[in-house]
Amino acid sequence: MILVSLVSTKAYYGGPLVGYPISALHDHLPYIEARIVAIFRQDRAIIPQGSTIIEAGDEIFFICETQNIKAIMSELQRLERPHKTSDDCRWWLNRIRVSKRFRKSVQRENH
Predict the structure, then answer these.
(1) Distance CA 60, CA 78 (A)
(2) Which of 66, 82, 78 has its CA nearest to residue 33?
(3) What is the pTM of this model?
(4) Which end of the chain is more exposed for a tag (fewer CB within 10 A), N or C?
(5) Which of 33, 42, 37 is CA-nearest to residue 8?
(6) How far apart are CA 64 and CA 32, in angstroms?
C-alpha cells in the first residue's frame, strides 16, 4: 500500500529550488513523483504552474508519497525546519477555497 501525504512547509533562502520555477523540482528529483498544489505568498493564494518561481517565505503545499516528504522538503529548506502533515493543512486548504470564491465574486462585480 502506498501512503500519500499533503504537506505544508515554508520555503527558505538556501533551499535548492528557491528562486527557480516549480518545473525544476522534476530536474532535481527525477525519480520522485510530487505535485505542488498551492502556494501562499504574502497572504495570497497562488495557483502554481510550472513557470511559477518559488520565493523565500512562500508557504508551499505539496502532495507526495509519505516516504518522500524529506526529499521534497530538502529542495525548499534546510531539514531542521518542521513540516505540517495532512491534518494541519485543512485550515490552509479552506483559505484557498475562500480565496478562489472571493476572487470570482470580485470578478463578477467588476464585469
Answers:
(1) 14
(2) 66
(3) 0.68
(4) N
(5) 37
(6) 8
The cell numbers describing 24, all together, are 525544476
Residues in the chain: 111
Cα-based torsion angle of the residue sequence 94, 42, 36, 90 in order, rounded to the nearest 10 degrees:
-20
The 10s digit of each residue's pLDDT in 12-67 is 988 899 999 999 999 989 899 999 999 999 989 999 999 999 999 999 999 999 99
Residue 68: phi and psi, rounded to 5, are: -105, 5
* Alpha helices, DSSP H, located in the chain: 24-28, 69-76, 86-110
Asked if residue 104 lies in contact with residue 96, where contact means CB atoms within 8 angstroms, the answer is no
Please, which residues have CB within 8 angstroms of residue 69's CB and are 6 or more apart in sequence? 5, 7, 83
